Amino acid sequence: MASRPWIGLIGVAMLCSPAPASSDPGTTPNCTLEPGPIRTVTRIIDGETLVLDDGKAVRLIGALSPRARDADAAAGAWPPEIDATKALSDLVLAKRVKLAFSGRRSDRYGRQLAHVFVLENGREDWIQGALLRGGFARAYGLPDSFACARELMANEAEARRTRAGLWSNGIYRTLPAEHPAEIMKQRGKYVRVRGSLVSVGRTKSATYLNFSNDWRSDFTARIDKKVLTANPEFDKSLDALANTTVVVRGWIERRNGPMIDIADPSQLEPTDAQPAEPAAPKEARPAPPEGVEPSAVNLKSL
Q1: Do the Cβ atoms of 124 and 116 come closer than 8 Å?
Q2: What mean pLDDT is reported for the chain?
Q3: Strand pairing of 112-120 and 34-46?
Q4: pLDDT at 289
Q5: Which residues are paired to 39 by β-bridges?
Q6: pLDDT attached to residue 32
Q7: Contact status, residue 128 vs residue 152, Cβ threshold 8 Å
Q8: Rounded Cα distance, 89 and 22, in Å
Q9: What span, in angstroms and rounded, lies between the C-alpha atoms of 148 and 114?
Q10: What is the pTM (predicted TM-score) of this model?
């Protein structure tokens, strides 16, 4: 896949002042993150992981970069992966960055899970937003790490609308729910699945979104009771989705047929009542985190 022009994306999409809270009940104010340390980036590991001058690795939570395994390609030879790594390097390598957090602060490998802002020329440029809008990543979250999902997905939607970056590659197409065998081939991979929701089934422990009447082999989305309890309005909205078209995103598991476990409402996108790919508003970014954590020192900036 050929690289696409993208340098101007930060200036266009990421530098707007935080939007004020709207009186429109259909909108929400920008997310706010907890400020972290300011450091300098010394190394890029891949399209979503960097190393700081204190030796700590940071994973850009919310922006899932392409991997060779997405296409079962040879390691180091998958163009979208190469493009994403170069894009991140151009954005942050040898530059001062501010980390910001919400929820979990590290993954099982000890990498910090952070939103990253480049500090340059008096600006704070949100790196996740730039990568998503340029088509170098897909929006996602982890349990306890879904902060700024609205802003992340708005920037991804803009890349899909313009077919930027990885969205021009058929490997990352949205899969049809009526073809469960095709979906099952993506087991263990992160995908988007679109289809008409046939029924909503509820048990004591979970709610199931069924995309056919054959639950033993069809594609299904599962929502744990804990997720529904934490998001009561989301819970109330589910029954009305029967016989509508929705998009589900997440990692494919095998439980009878292929299934996605929904850990956050952002993984379910109703499509019948909204344009297919609305343009991302310019304010689709977090409020820049104010201040720095106590004792956070960047020796290279002194």
Answers
A1: no
A2: 86
A3: unpaired
A4: 72
A5: 97
A6: 87
A7: yes
A8: 36
A9: 12
A10: 0.83
Start-to-end C-alpha separation, the chain? 41
Q: Angle CA(91)–CA(136)–CA(74) in degrees, nearest 5?
A: 110
Closest CA to 213 of 193, 243, 183, 239: 243
Quote the CA–CA distance of 298 and 302 in Å, as a whole number. Answer: 7
Rounded distance between C-alpha atoms, residue 291 and residue 254, angstroms: 45
Q: Which helix (H) or strand (E) holds 87?
A: helix 79-92
Burial class of residue 276 in the structure, from the number of CB atoms within 10 Å of its CB (0-12 exposed, 13-18 middle, 19+ buried): exposed
Amino acid identity, residue 1? M
Return d(Cα 219, Cα 211) in angstroms, integer. Answer: 6
Please say whether the beta carbons of 292 and 38 come within 8 A: yes
Measured in degrees and rounded to the nearest 5, phi and psi for residue 60 equal -75, 95
Give the separation between CA 127 and CA 287, rounded to whole angstroms.
13
Burial class (CB in 10 A: 0-12, 13-18, 19+), 86: middle
């029924």: which residue's tokens? Answer: 199
Residues of the chain below pLDDT 70? 1-30, 273-283, 288, 290-302
Distance CA 230, CA 256 (A): 27
Bridging pattern class, strands 63-64 and 123-126: unpaired
Q: Which residue has the tokens 């300098």?
A: 40
Which pLDDT does position 166 carry in this prediction?
A: 98
Q: CA 286, CA 216: separation in Å to the nearest integer?
A: 41
Token reading at 253: 């598991």
